[in-house]
């Protein structure tokens, strides 16, 4: 299988600014009690017919009420679109941005390629994955039309080799009766408290560089723990890095490569067997 990739120059420049390091330890934080609707909205895989993942062109007609469009922009940035045309940009930054102004922008504090101090003022909701008070966890839980966004704080390594507590967030998007998670710049495996907060996941965006974030063994542990039917790689800097991850995943997961950067998913079209779907970056 041939992998076709298109990485932006800005992504490569951003990669050179990162310093590889080992994963840092993490600590328990007091989390709010899970909401009843969280368990109802994220019930896991439900398939009523032979499942499939449907590739989509970047510009499509209105989504059906049970569909979500995911477009890989590059690096760790995706554009997620809901049936009621709520647009979300993940890890919104100054280097890689979607071609449309999102309604919601999420960010992570790990590196400048994952956040910006100057977001487009037209964005109604800018959700930073870290708190203004250093070392404190931030909490987001907002609903915009048919989209709910919440976060689970995690730690990151700082530039001195130590740990910045709660400097990253895993953002969870509840749309069309599905839960979609973006792991951000994840630096450590997850404890049971964090797994419980995340809940059941249908699709997950996973950093797969294997060094700047979590190593491959640790990331596979996280993926297996989440049990998502659909895994979408991100945060890779070369074909070699991506293929290294795919070769490990091939032992237990199906692998598919899309010719387009977008995919439309719904609860009934998720794969019956867990699948890694590679979307080419724009």
TrEMBL record:
<dbReference type="InterPro" id="IPR036866">
    <property type="entry name" value="RibonucZ/Hydroxyglut_hydro"/>
</dbReference>
<dbReference type="Pfam" id="PF13483">
    <property type="entry name" value="Lactamase_B_3"/>
</dbReference>
<protein>
    <submittedName>
        <fullName>Uncharacterized protein</fullName>
    </submittedName>
</protein>
């Amino acid at each position: 299988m041939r992998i076709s990739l298109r990485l932006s120059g800005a992504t490569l420049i951003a990669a050179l600014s990162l310093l590889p390091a080992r994963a840092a330890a993490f600590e328990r934080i007091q989390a709010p009690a899970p909401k009843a609707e969280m368990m109802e909205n994220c019930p896991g895989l439900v398939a009523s017919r032979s499942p499939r993942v449907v590739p989509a062109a970047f510009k499509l007609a209105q989504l059906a009420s049970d569909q979500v469009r995911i477009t890989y922009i590059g690096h760790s940035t995706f554009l997620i679109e809901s049936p009621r045309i709520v647009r979300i940009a993940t890890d919104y930054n100054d280097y890689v941005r979607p071609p449309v102004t999102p309604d919601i922008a999420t960010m992570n504090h790990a590196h400048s390629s994952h956040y910006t101090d100057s977001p487009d003022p037209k964005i109604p909701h800018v959700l930073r994955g870290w708190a203004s008070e250093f070392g404190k966890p931030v909490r987001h839980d907002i609903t915009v039309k048919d989209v709910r966004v919440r976060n689970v704080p995690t730690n990151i390594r700082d530039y001195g080799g130590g740990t910045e507590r709660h400097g990253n967030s895993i953002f969870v998007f509840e749309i069309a009766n599905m839960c979609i998670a973006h792991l951000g710049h994840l630096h450590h495996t997850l404890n049971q408290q964090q797994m419980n907060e995340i809940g059941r996941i249908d699709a997950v965006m996973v950093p797969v560089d294997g060094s700047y974030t979590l190593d491959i063994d640790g990331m596979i542990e996280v993926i297996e723990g989440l049990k998502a039917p659909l895994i979408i790689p991100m945060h890779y800097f070369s074909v070699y890095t991506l293929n290294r991850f795919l070769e490990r995943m091939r032992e237990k997961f199906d692998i598919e490569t899309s010719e387009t950067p977008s995919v439309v998913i719904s609860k009934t079209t998720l794969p019956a067997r867990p699948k890694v779907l590679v979307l080419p970056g724009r």
